[in-house]
Design a protein that fits this description.
This protein is of the alpha/beta class and 436 residues long. It contains 13 helices and 19 strands. The protein is globular. The protein binds S-adenosyl-L-homocysteine (SAH), iron/sulfur cluster and FE3-S4 cluster. One of its GO terms (molecular function) is tRNA-2-methylthio-N(6)-dimethylallyladenosine(37) synthase activity.
Length: 436
């Protein structure tokens, strides 16, 4: 029996898919090379913007054909669109045999049995069930041998007015320290060098269990064999001095933070209910720079939030110039049903969003080419994580992709490299020495 999973969305969804693969392997399934040969096809969906919603329907249309050849094949949908739409999704796409969400991934074995018996196995819950922590008993199946994601928190307690995540993933539930550490230990024993802690709001970890994210950083750093620690996504409101201090004190925490600011205008930030001002955001950046030498930043931005004026938008551009992010993920505002911003007055026309987006991308391109120049000739530490087209590929501590010539045996090693040529998205490097 074979499975095929297609994943959309964020790293949390990606890590959920890794866990689903672990469950399916434990049931005796093997990974199929393509959906055509699979006995169970799963779509792990995202609904953050309208675009990913649409992709799901076109994929389901494709998968329908598999049933013509293999009538026993099971087609399942999970993830955030499944949670948001529930049974309505099955009405729209009757080809679906099985459905669950991030609340009840651990129930997959029973759901598969139900579907195999010929029933529609639809289990969309209002609230996460009490036994949801059973999920952590399953290992993940990873493609990357050396860098691993570890989900440390589910859900989100913020209420940004544009966002569906609190609805699709529920309220914040921090995973226990003990459960996290035992997964980290198992991963290190399996050869993992870099641990990437995940949560929609990872810097709020612990708030619901009487702990603080800084404690988690110190604890993970204590696990022998952990060479690098990263985390995603940080929220400016929770990014406090304790975290900055921990980052500074722990050498294995990488000098890079993904810290979405979403908008530069204080008026728009208030409408978004983000809980900080532009000035406060800049103070956090400054604080992190003081505690963590050489730190770099990436961010998310929304363009064209309801009522955004030219002047508001210029504050967004100004923030890009002030912080000089290494990476900017920018999105046109997409009104999501059920969120307050969906029905706000003053929706921005699409052509205005498109024009502003183009200006933002242009500015960021310029900044990026300047940043790239600063890398040229420098020595960087790179963890080599894959071998592609005859080249070793890895990331610098500051989260830039680097490629270099060298033997495949160096995979999994941390090396020092010299940056020969810096392209906006890739540093072409030469080997200086092997560290470990
Ligand atoms: N928890 C993260 C965000 C997760 S969603 C945080 O608070 O930073 C990833 C990104 O999608 C967001 O940062 C935001 O930039 C974008 N996004 C979320 N909802 C959106 C919407 N309705 N329209 C456009 N972009 C959106
Ligand atoms: Fe959405 Fe805001 Fe929570 Fe991020 S912090 S997941 S944007 S509600
Ligand atoms: Fe998408 Fe859900 Fe992640 S909506 S961005 S998959 S939390």
């Amino acid at each position: 029996m074979k499975f095929y999973i297609k994943t959309f969305g964020c790293q949390m969804n990606f890590n959920d898919s890794e866990r689903i693969k672990g469950i399916l392997k434990s049931l005796g399934y093997e990974q199929a090379r393509s959906y055509e040969e699979a006995d169970i096809i799963l779509l792990n969906t995202c609904t953050i913007r309208e675009k990913p919603d649409q992709k799901v329907y076109s994929h389901l249309g494709e998968y329908k054909k598999v049933k013509e050849k293999n009538p026993k094949a099971i087609i399942g949908v999970c993830g955030c669109l499944a949670q948001r739409m529930g049974a309505e999704l099955v009405n729209k796409a009757p080809v679906i045999d099985l459905m669950f969400s991030s609340f009840n991934i651990h129930q997959l074995p029973q759901l598969i049995q139900q579907a195999q018996a010929g029933y529609k196995a639809i289990a969309i819950l209002e609230e996460p069930p009490e036994d949801e922590d059973k999920l952590w008993e399953y290992p993940t199946v990873r493609d990357n041998q050396y860098c691993a994601y570890v989900t440390v928190m589910k859900g989100c307690d913020k209420n940004c007015t544009y966002c569906v995540v609190p609805k699709t993933r529920g309220r914040q539930r921090s995973r226990s320290l003990q459960s996290i550490l035992s997964e980290v230990k198992a991963l290190v024993e399996d050869g993992v060098k870099e641990i990437h802690l995940l949560g929609q709001n990872v810097t709020a970890w612990g708030q619901d269990i009487g702990m603080h994210f800084a404690d988690l950083l110190y604890e993970v750093a204590q696990v022998e064999g952990v060479q690098r620690i990263r985390f995603t996504t940080g929220h400016p409101k929770d990014m406090d001095e304790r975290i900055a201090k921990a980052m500074g004190e722990i050498p294995t925490v990488c000098p890079h933070v993904h810290l979405p600011f979403q908008a530069g205008s204080n008026r728009i930030l208030a409408l978004m209910d983000r809980g900080y001002t532009k000035e406060e955001y800049l103070e956090k950046i400054q604080m992190l720079r003081e505690y963590k030498k050489g730190i770099t930043f990436s961010t998310d931005v929304i363009v064209g939030f309801p009522t955004e004026t030219e002047e508001d938008f210029e504050h967004t551009l100004d923030l890009l110039e002030k912080v000089r992010f290494e990476q900017v993920f920018s999105f046109k505002f997409s009104p999501r049903p059920g969120t307050p911003a969906y029905s706000m007055e003053g929706q921005v026309p699409d052509d205005v969003k498109t024009q502003r987006m183009a200006r933002l991308l242009n500015l960021q391109k310029k900044i990026l080419s300047e940043i790239a120049k600063e890398y040229e000739g420098t020595i960087q530490e790179v963890l080599l994580e894959s071998y592609e087209n005859g080249k070793l590929v890895g990331r610098t501590l500051t989260n830039r992709w680097a490629t270099l010539q060298g033997p495949e045996e160096l995979l999994g090693k941390t090396v020092l490299v010299r940056v020969e040529k810096a392209n906006p998205y890739n540093l072409e490097c030469s080997l200086v020495s092997v560290l470990s």
